[in-house]
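Chapter review: from sequence to fold.
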Amino acid sequence: MTRMRALLVVPENNTTMEGEMRAYCPQIHDLLVARVSRPARTLLREDIPAYRASTLKAVEPFEGEAIDILLYGCTAAGFLAGPEGESELACALSARFGVETVTTAGAMVAVLQDEKVTRIDVVTPYLEAVNEGLKAYLAAGGITVERLESFSCATTAELGAIGSAEVLALARATASREAQALFIACSQLPTRAILPRLRRELRRPVRSSIEAAALAASKAFAAKASAAA
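The token string follows.
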């Protein structure tokens, strides 16, 4: 197995993505983590310029590190910036490190498109205004949200208190007959332990922000290893 080195960029409150990425991607032998300062409340569209600046500041100490991939792990900041804004930040990060940048928001759309899914149910922890931004981002990728249910977290403390059992219960309650798949958005929500169970029960694709990023990273690792062979 080719051993890879990655830089994970996450909000400072995120306690989930590092562990799940290590489990999903055993190719990563060294996972550096840059933590981005943010408000203690939920991110809103008007926060995106400041969050982008905080992101670029957070990665500064890691410039000069030899890495194989950069993982941008804030789903909300990605989709609230819109496809163009998210792409611009990914390009800025890639330019600094000379490697591919995988974003959880972009990976979300990519995995659904790869599976030819156009109608989904969604579980989020976000407030209504943020959920509307998510719907718009998905619509730009040709994906319609049939049903969306949320934990409606107003603060990072509320978000951090959600466990996998709560996510499982809300996912079950969200699944509709009209949707082809279910997606759990947010890289803080713990999902790795419950996704296989949900797939068996719902008999449809069930993905999450972190798993989507892991799949995109694995594809990038495979391409890099093939090119080096």
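Two observations follow directly from the output. The chain has two domains: 4-104+211-228, 107-209. The chain has a mean pLDDT of 95.
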